[in-house]
Amino acid sequence: MAYSPLKFLLRFGCLLSGCATLAFHPQSSEALVVFGSNDQLAPSNPDYNDTYTLPPNDGAPWAYAARVSPDSPSAVYLGHGFILTANHVATRNTGILIDGQVYDRDQTFERIRITTGSDNVDLSLWKILGDPGLPELPIAIPTVDYDLGTATTLIGWGAGKGQYLSSGYGPNKIEGWEWDQSIQIKRWGTNMSDGEASSLVPGVDYEVLRFFQNRNAGPGEAAPAQDDSGAGAFQLLGGIWKLSGIATLSQSPSLFVNSDTYYSEGVRLGTYSHLLRFENWKVAVGGNSALEDLSDGDNDGIPLLAEYAMGMAPGANSMDQLPSPAIDGDYLTITYRRLMSATDVEFVIEESDTVGGWVPATVAVRETIATDHTIHMLRDKVPIAGATRKFLRVRVTRL
After folding, report:
1. Cα Rg for the chain, rounded, in angstroms?
2. Which of 7, 8, 322, 381 qualifies as a cystine partner to 365, CB 3.0-4.6 A?
3. Cα(first)–Cα(last) distance of the chain, in Å?
């Protein structure tokens, strides 16, 4: 949905031969899915069953489950060219497989680590070149969507279920299935998000969705395996399929063990979704996704959409964080903040000689002069090219 430009201008004094006008417009699961069984004595192998290698018939977002390069870990397509995966997945330049087609990774977009405060989150955002033609994928919203104790569909590209193993006796008995990378194809399975917890992995302190391997989800129960890192955990929330988690780790390496104590984890996206989507951000900062995009609750003259896109605090006066102009030799520059993880807004630098008839500016140089997690301070340089006056503005549009 396109939004009209905000009719909101901030003017600055002339700077020698140029002026600037600014405007706002609207650890790790090396994982894929392994399946459990209710039959302990003669376990079936649904990995070879088309039921789990074809799209689920309940509408779960099968097409959005992506793959990093032809034979590597999983990811999820969010829409608008962005994919989300586990941060420990190594950056590759060989392409992203989405809905049967390979797209090149946009190497001009710096890989963004999704994190906030002191949380060390195993999550990163990439971008692709091209358009898979898939609508924006909804993401679970904190305080709105109840994602705990909820049926979950896991979709990924990891190893399948191999040989069944049973050894030992009593409390030392181990039974389960080996991971078989020879049947590494796209699959889905189910599980329950059994509770809220922070990750128990040393050095990792983000909020997680936890999935125990205890067969409480029936014959299609799934858990991450080799190359499932980045696989999606999807839940039907309020009648809408939403992405609620990204697979990050499996407690039992190389084996799917049937136990009430073994589990796998994923990043609980509701905790961090305010960094990805404007609607989620409005809930996190204002408790209401229906707040008008151009509203200004803190009366600092900056609308919500601009505060979100530029990573500002909506409850405080943010005038000192507005874009600023300057002259640098033969260039008119504009320095501005950008929430790089925002997947639903577009920034365009525009120029004019008359404060009218705005056109996209000829940005000769774009510099990142500072970064704070997902917020970057950018400086764009536009040639003055002999003009006696020139105006620049930042246009932020909601996609």
Report:
1. 24
2. 381
3. 6
DSSP state of 290: T
Burial of 117 (0-12, 13-18, 19+ CB in 10 A): exposed
Q: Backbone phi, then psi, for 245, in 5-degree steps?
A: -160, 160
pLDDT at 216: 64
Q: Which two tokens stand for residue 65?
A: 């489950």
Q: What are the structure tokens assigned to 284, written together?
A: 């996190």
CA angle 274, 114, 317 (to 5 degrees): 50
Q: What contacts 160, CB < 8 A, 6 or more positions away?
A: 32, 34, 47, 48, 179, 180, 181, 182, 183, 184, 185, 187, 225
Q: State pLDDT tens for residues 118-127.
A: 788 899 999 9
| Per-residue pLDDT tens digits for 322-379 | 999 999 999 999 999 999 999 999 999 999 988 888 999 999 999 999 998 789 999 9
Q: How many CA atoms lie within 13 A of 191 on its CB side?
A: 32
3-class secondary structure, 392: strand
pLDDT for residue 250? 79
Domains and CATH numbers, the chain: 9-26+293-398 (2.60.40.10), 33-275 (2.40.10.120)
Return d(Cα 11, Cα 351) in angstroms, integer. 14
Distance CA 21, CA 16 (A): 14
**HSE (side-chain half, CA atoms, 13 Å) at 342:** 26
Residue with tokens 């996704």: 289
